[in-house]
Amino acid sequence: MSSEPTIRRTPIRVLRDSVARKIAAGEVIDRPASAVRELLDNSLDAGSTEIALYITGGGIDSIRVVDNGWGMSEEDLRLCWLPHATSKIESEEDLLHIHSLGFRGEALSALANVSRLEILSRLTDEEMGHRLVVHGGQLISLEPHAAKPGTVVTASDLFFGIPARRKFLKRPSTETNLCRITFLEKALPFPDREFKLFIEGKLTHFLPVGNLTERVSQAYPEETRQTTLQELTGSGSGFRFRIVTGSPETYRKDRKHLQLYVNRRRIWDFSLLQGVEYAFSSYLPGGTFPLCYVFLEIDPEWVDFNIHPAKKEARIRNAEEIRKRISEVLSSFLLSRGRVSLRNLQVSGYTPLKNQASLWVGEGPGTTKEEPPIEPPRSLEWKNGGSSTKVDLSFPFPRSAESILDFPNSPFLYKGQVFGLFLLVEWNDTVFLVDQHAAHERFIYDALLRDSVPQPLLIPMEFTLEPEEEVRVLENASKVNALGVQIEKIRSGIWALTALPGAYRGGEEEVITLVKTQTGSLETLKQELFAQIACKKAIKDGEGINPLSAYEILRYVFSLDNPRCPHGRPLWVQISREELLRGVRRII
Ligand code: ADP
Ligand code: MG
C-alpha cells in the first residue's frame, strides 16, 4: 500500500452550499466511537505518523487524540468547527477523486456542538501554536498558545445538555470497547503509522510501525495466536488487494474477523467478502468463518463512499470482477497449502481412496512457506453465484498439456475432459472417469447445505404474488426463514427477496418460485430447492472446465464418504491398471 497519493495541507474553506448539499448528510457523531473514528481520520489525513488516543469514562467523559501531523493555522482553527468547513474538497468534481478519509467538513462542527471541544494545534514550521475552545457550539476563545508541532483535539463531556442522546448510550465499559474496536479498525490498514491507545490513562495497545501481517497480529493478538497468517496479493483493472488470512483450521462462528477495507476504510459490505467465503466453503464446517482481512485499493473514480454518512458502505463499480479475483487468489492459496508432493506419496500398491483423500486435510503450519501459493492462470473461468466468465483454457485441450498435468501438484492427476462429460483422473493404479455435472452438482449441493446465514442483497429482488400465492408464502414463512431466506411484503401483491445465504446466489428465481408453490415439509422444500439450484449452477454437459475448478471439484468429491450425486447416482467409474492390462491381454 505504498503508492498512496501524497496529500498536502491546504487551508480550510467553507464549502459552497451547492457542494455541501451533494454530500450524504447524517448525524456523524452519535456516540463516542464515532467521534473517535472522525478524529483518527483527521489525524491520518493530516499526514501524522504517530497517533495516540486517550479514552476516559467510556469516551463520554473525554476523548483526546494527539497527533504529529501538519497542524492548523490560526485561520484554520477559526474555521474548522464551522459546518462544511474542510480543506479536503472544494468542488463537486473533487468528490470523484477523494484520497482523504474525511471530506464532508462535518465532524468537527458536529463535535463542537455536542461537547466541550478544545483544539491545540501548531503548524510544523511555526514557533507558536493556537488553542481553540468551543462549548456546545459557542466559541469561548481562540488564542496563541505554546504547543508541539501537530494537533491535540480534546472532546469532553460528550452530549452534555442533550439528555436524550446520553440516555441512548450504553454503559461506559461498552462504549470504551466500541472505541477500542474503532481504534483497531483505523490502525489496521495503516501499518506504516504508529498507534497508541490509552484507556483511563493506561497504555492498553501499542502498535508500532511494521508490515501488514504484523499489524493484524498486533491488533488482534488473542484471535490470531493460534493460526499462521499468510499475506496474499492480487490485482485487476483499476484495483489491487492484499489479503491477510488465517488457515482454515482456525475459524469462528461469527464474521467479526472477516473484514473488508476499501481504500483503507472498513466497509460493511459482505457481498465482496462472498469471494472469501466461497473460497473457504469446502474447507470450513458449516456456519463458520475464517479470519481473513481484505485490504482493497480501488481507483477513487470507481468507488463512491458518499452514500453513507459514516462511510460504512461504498458503491463499487467492478465489484463482480473483484469478488472473483479475491476468490481465485484465496482458492489457489488454499489448494496449494493442501497439496502433497508426489515424492512423499506411497506409490506402491493401491491404498483405499478415503485414506489418500485425507492427505488433503491441513498439513499444519509451515508448509505454506516452503511451497508458495500458485498463481492461477490469468484467464480463468470461475463459476460463482450463477454467473461465470468463460475463458476456456481446457477446451479445446491446450497445446501444452504439461501445464495441466503439473498443476497443481496433487496426489491425483487431472488429465482433462472426455466427451465434454467426464473428468479423467489418474490416481496411483487407477483411472477415474468422473461425471463432471454430477460431481459439481454434489459440490454445490453440499455448499448449500452448509450455508444458512442470510446475507442481505444489495438490491432486493421484487416479485409479484397472486392472492392465493400470498397465502402460501405466509404458510411457508417459518420454513423459508429456517432456510436463511428473507422476504418482505412491500405492498399488496408486491414482495421482495431481501436476503439469502451466499451459496444460494444465482438461484434467486428458484427460491422465489419455491416459496410461492411448495406445500411440503422443510426437508422436502430444502431438497427440492437445493437440487434445483445445484443443477442450474453446475457445469453442463459439453461445457469446458478450467483445471483449477476441476481440481477443486475432484478434491472435494474424492474426500466424500458417499460419493453420489444429489439424485443418488454414483459420481464416477473406475478402471484399474490391471483391468486395462488384462483388456489388452498383457496379463492373463
Ligand atoms: P473533514 O475532515 O471532512 O474535512 P472535519 O470537520 O473533520 O472535516 O475537519 C475540518 C478540517 O479541520 C479538516 O478539513 C482539516 O483541514 C482540519 N483538521 C481537523 N483535524 C485536524 C488535524 N488533526 N490536523 C490537521 N488538520 C485538521
Ligand atoms: Mg474529518
Report what the structure shows.
This protein has 588 residues and is of the alpha+beta class. It has 3 domains: 17-207, Heat Shock Protein 90; 213-340, Ribosomal Protein S5, domain 2; 349-588, formyl-coa transferase, domain 3, CATH 3.30.1540. The chain contains 19 helices and 28 strands. The strands form 8 sheets. Strands 7-6-5-8-3-2-9-10 form an 8-stranded mixed sheet. The protein has a 5-stranded mixed sheet with strand order 11-12-17-14-15, sandwiched between helices. A hairpin with a 2-residue loop joins β26 and β27 (494-501). Bound molecules: adenosine-5'-diphosphate and magnesium ion. The site of adenosine-5'-diphosphate has 23 residues, from α2, β4 and α4.
Provide a quick synopsis of the model.
This protein has 19 helices and 28 strands.
The assigned structural class equals alpha+beta
| Low-confidence parts | 22-26, 339-408
Gross CATH architecture of the largest domain: 2-Layer Sandwich
Ligands in the model, by name, code or SMILES, are: adenosine-5'-diphosphate, magnesium ion
> Domains counted in the coordinates: how many?
3
